[in-house]
Write a sequence for this structure.
């Protein structure tokens, strides 16, 4: 069973938000929009957000503030896709090190948005599978049984 999470499109640029929302809607998603870091905080507090498309800068902060808001556990934080008109290789690596899932060019192309959605859902499945393995290993006897089955395969 696939868990359900929301998608946040965060940008002070109305046209950018509209273009990403249009693409996501065509893909069967119903994204939530925000135009400030403060609005993002409210959405993150009220919703189970798994994917965020966001700009580099907001009137009240930057994407770094958004990352800080999502918590410290990388396996629990939403995947943040930074959308930007231009980023140099050094900035790209800094963004990835700071916790950004990926960086895509803005204005966003449908294939890039769809690919980020696919990657985020794959990542979510991996996270869930790892959680199940960890949980099952903590149940007495399950780890031995899993090891025995793995040895026979």
């Amino acid at each position: 069973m696939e868990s359900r999470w929301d998608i946040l499109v965060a940008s002070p640029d109305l046209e950018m938000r509209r273009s990403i929302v249009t693409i996501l809607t065509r893909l069967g998603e119903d994204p939530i929009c925000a135009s400030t870091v403060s609005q993002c905080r409210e959405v993150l507090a009220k919703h189970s957000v798994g994917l965020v498309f966001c700009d580099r800068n907001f009137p009240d902060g930057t994407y770094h503030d958004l990352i800080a808001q999502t918590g410290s556990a990388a396996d629990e934080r939403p995947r943040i896709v930074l959308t930007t008109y231009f980023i140099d290789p050094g900035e790209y690596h800094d963004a990835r090190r700071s916790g950004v899932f990926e960086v895509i060019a803005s204005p966003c192309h449908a294939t890039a948005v769809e690919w980020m959605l696919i990657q985020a859902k794959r990542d979510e499945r991996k996270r869930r599978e790892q959680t199940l393995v960890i949980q099952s290993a903590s149940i007495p006897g399950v780890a031995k049984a899993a090891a025995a089955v793995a040895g026979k395969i």
